[in-house]
Amino acid sequence: MRKRIVQAIGMVFCMCILLCACQSQERTASDKIYIGVTYYDQSDTFLNELLDCFKKYFAESENEEMKVTVTVRDAAGSQRTQNEQVKELIDAGCNVLCVNLVDRTAPSEIIDLARGEDVPVIFFNREPVAEDLMQWDKCYYVGAKAEESGVMQGELAADAILGNEQADRNGDGKIQYVVLEGEPGHQDAIIRTENAVATLESKGITLEKLSYGIANWNRAQAQNRMTQMLGEHKDQIELVLANNDDMVLGAIDAYDALKYMDSERPLLFGIDGTDMGLKAMEDLKLSGTVYNDKEGQAAAMAELAVAIVSESGMEEIEFENDKYIYLPYSKVSLENIDDFQGR
Ligand code: GAL
Ligand code: CA
Fold first, then answer.
1. Best CA proximity match to 211, nearest among 182, 183, 235, 233
2. Which residues contact 96 (CB under 8 A, 6 or more apart)?
3. Residue ranges of the alpha helices (H) in 262-336?
4. What residue owns the CA closest to ligand 1's atom 11?
5. Which tens digits make up the pLDDT trace of 306-337?
6. DSSP of 210-244
7. pLDDT score of 61
8. Contact 99/38 with Cβ under 8 angstroms?
9. Mean pLDDT for the stretch of residues 225-247
10. 3 state DSSP class of 179
11. Across the beta sheet with 121-124, what order do the strands follow?
12. For 7-11, 111-115, 167-171, which range has the lowest pLDDT when averaged over its residues?
């Protein structure tokens, strides 16, 4: 009998310990904000510029009541590395995380880790699928709508083509074009291309696709792909649509290296409005780009992080579907380029 009682007490005791361990800690409001950031790859130009804006935001806004520490990690293209970084950032005491996923279809482990310690997660730029974001009410997303940037790129290209008889260089009534694509599976790759092409067609422009190359947002890879396409199609290419500025800059590098004259070059369009992209527009090497609002995205992430941790100001933030903040894109032209430079 006594043995049974001791056993029963022991079991209740064990269950209590287990229960306590399983229950995640609820964090309380804090005026010390420790932000842990991890991004998919440090070679990405747009993200480096976005994170510079993010750090600058706090450098300019820090005051006595609010102390902010930002720690940034590069996942170097590995989801496994990124998961470990999230664990380390949480262990180091971060009370909010900003995650630019390596694999946008694989956020579950990160969400589980964060939920276990009640550390909210702001995903940015690489959009998780909606079902994944629904896994926990403290997951958010800050970014921009891929479709919008594609439509704008198509409009810029249509304006340039319709206002310029030289655009159809061989005069066959069609615009021969090639595409430089970002990473397969990224929301900003295929959606941008589809919308740019559909917009051009909706303006009555007949297109003929000569080729495409996947260059993973990367300038050097794009130069390679473009050099190959030029080897095959020479001066038949009348339009280059690139899913971002770095890749269109790579295409320009290819034309430069092969010493094409200005009159032999196609119209070329990018997306992002990076420093180098805007410079290439000013130098008249790039026909146009669409501004991906890094300042707006950085500020939205920063304001959300502060509101979450300090538990104030959340009601002032405008979400779409409770979780999403999308910043608008803008078309950059030579007339308005000054508005975007040195923001
Ligand atoms: C896109 C951007 C690209 C690249 C990519 C990375 O929004 O246009 O240049 O940065 O995100 O996820
Ligand atoms: Ca033509």
1. 233
2. 33, 34, 35, 36, 119, 120, 121, 122, 305, 308, 309
3. 275-282, 294-310
4. 125
5. 999 999 999 999 999 999 999 999 999 999 99
6. EEEEE-TT-HHHHHHHHHHHHHHHGGG--EEEESS
7. 81
8. yes
9. 97
10. strand
11. 67-74, 32-39, 96-99, 121-124, 139-143, 324-326
12. 7-11
Run of H or E residues at 85: helix 79-91
Question: Tokens at residue 284, please?
Answer: 């008249």
d(CA 264, CA 236): 9
210 CA from centroid of ligand 2 (Å): 11
The ligand whose atoms approach the alpha carbon of 40 most closely is 1
Q: Which ligand is nearest to the CA of 172?
A: 2
Mutate to test the pocket of ligand 1, among 147, 217, 276, 290 (most ligand atoms within 8 A of CB): 217
**Digit-coded pLDDT (tens) for 159-215:** 999 989 999 999 999 999 999 999 999 999 999 999 999 999 999 999 999 999 999
Give distance in angstroms: CA of 208 to centre of ligand 2.
8
Tokens 């010493």 belong to residue: 259
Based on its alpha-carbon atoms, the radius of gyration of the chain, rounded to whole angstroms, reads: 24
Instruction: Give the pLDDT of residue 15.
Output: 46
Check if the beta carbon of residue 239 is closer than 8 Å to that of residue 180. Answer: no
If you measure from the C-alpha of residue 190 to the centroid of ligand 1, how many angstroms do you get, rounded to a whole number?
12
Tens-place pLDDT, residues 15-45: 444 444 444 456 667 779 999 999 999 999 9
